[in-house]
Amino acid sequence: MNPIIIALDFQTGQEALAFIDQFPTSQSLFVKVGMELFYREDNQILTQLKVRGCKIFLDLKLHDIPNTVFQSAKILSQLGVDMVTIHAAGGSKMIQAAHDGLVSGAGTKKIPKLLAVTQLTSTSEKVLHEELHIGLTLQESVLSLARLAVSNGADGVICAAPEAPMIHKNIGKDFLCVTPGIRLPGQSHQDQQRVVSPKKAHIFGSDYIVVGRSITQASNKLAAFKRVQASWNE
Ligand SMILES: O=c1ccn([C@@H]2O[C@H](COP(=O)(O)O)[C@@H](O)[C@H]2O)c(=O)[nH]1
Fold this sequence. Notes:
Layout: E1 4-7, H1 13-20, E2 30-34, H2 35-41, H3 43-51, E3 55-62, H4 66-76, E4 83-87, H5 92-106, E5 113-117, H6 125-130, H7 138-151, E6 156-158, H8 164-171, E7 176-179, H9 198-204, E8 208-211, H10 213-216, H11 221-233
Bound molecules: ligand LLZGTKA7.
Ligand LLZGTKA7 is lined by residues 7, 9, 32, 34, 117, 120-121, 158, 180-182, 192, 210-214.
Pfam family, one: OMPdecase
GO biological process, one term: 'de novo' pyrimidine nucleobase biosynthetic process
Keywords: Decarboxylase, Lyase, Pyrimidine biosynthesis
């Protein structure tokens, strides 16, 4: 299994595909299409990526009333992607609606994995308390949202890697922990707050790491991807 999901945070499909085309065709890539690329390019970027053999994590982080999420998830389920996201903070009915929408929309297609964002990896303990007015610790809040997610049909969560052991211990080893907030040693954290190296994420038990700028903004992107792989395998 390839545990590295590359976040294709490019402004155009042309840039994203030029990036993908640098990799050998034998390399099976797992990529994340987020709001930036999807809002610009729509479904046709997904088709282009599938033609190139990529697995796709469509990261649109749905967060709305249950009916809207149900209808949207139904459509996402028909796009042939492997994973989709919602915000767990939308609550039990919203998570359930996302699950039901995916099941109802998939038809004969494979149902995409449903991942619930717990606390964004750009959120610090200080922001959680002072801006969001949440009285729990980050770990408590992440675990509580992960419990809400699993009870309502999610297959896993988006969290920071140091939270993965707690989630796997309390919820189960098969519940996916997909972890952004990844940097190689010495790199700037930029807007991320809860950051670890690929090696540390592997030790913590992340099922997948999501890596964007460390690879996509490197001068030699293929070499950067190999450095991430090497760190994970250390
Ligand atoms: O909590 C979250 C949820 C999603 N992301 C996404 O992951 C990548 C990370 O990019 P980097 O450049 O490696 O920081 C990005 O697409 C985010 O939208 C996240 O970082 N944290």
